[in-house]
């Protein structure tokens, strides 16, 4: 199941909800993937990831899923400020809103839950997050 945590207002607890729900699901034995879909990278820093070579930006631009294993049941795809470049890079691409969907199809069945933390925005990143939720319909 893919859950996108979205709200158009900042500071309402999207990252906190994603982080705490992810930890709780993993503690209950569910294999959980957290995706930081916000250029501020607060989920990444909040979960304690300090070193990484690739981020969710690589997912959008190259189809790479840089999954970091935090525990047996909890994994994360980090983000940083480079994610803000995705808007410009994908603005004229036909499949711009389906990049995350396409990449997650490869691992969707490996996880009980995939939680996506989003920035307060209704652009390409939010569209990708919403459309990724439809994987179960097309798989």
TrEMBL record:
Chain ranges of the AAA domain: 2-132
Gene3D superfamilies, sorted: P-loop containing nucleotide triphosphate hydrolases
InterPro entries: AAA_dom, DNA_Partitioning_ATPase, P-loop_NTPase
Designated name of the protein: AAA family ATPase
Organism in which the protein naturally occurs: Reichenbachiella ulvae
């Amino acid at each position: 199941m893919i859950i996108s945590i979205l709200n158009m207002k900042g500071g309402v607890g999207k990252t906190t909800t994603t982080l705490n729900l992810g930890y709780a699901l993993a503690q209950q034995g569910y294999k959980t993937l957290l995706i930081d879909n916000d250029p501020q990278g607060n989920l990444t820093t909040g979960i304690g990831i300090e070193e990484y070579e690739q981020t969710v930006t690589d997912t959008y631009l190259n189809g790479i899923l840089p999954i970091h294993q935090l525990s047996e049941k909890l994994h994360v795809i980090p983000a940083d400020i480079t994610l803000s470049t995705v808007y410009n890079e994908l603005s004229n691409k036909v499949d711009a809103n389906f990049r995350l969907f396409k990449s997650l199809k490869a691992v969707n069945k490996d996880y009980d839950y995939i939680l996506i933390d989003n920035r307060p925005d209704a652009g390409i990143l939010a569209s990708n997050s919403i459309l990724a939720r439809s994987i179960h319909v097309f798989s």
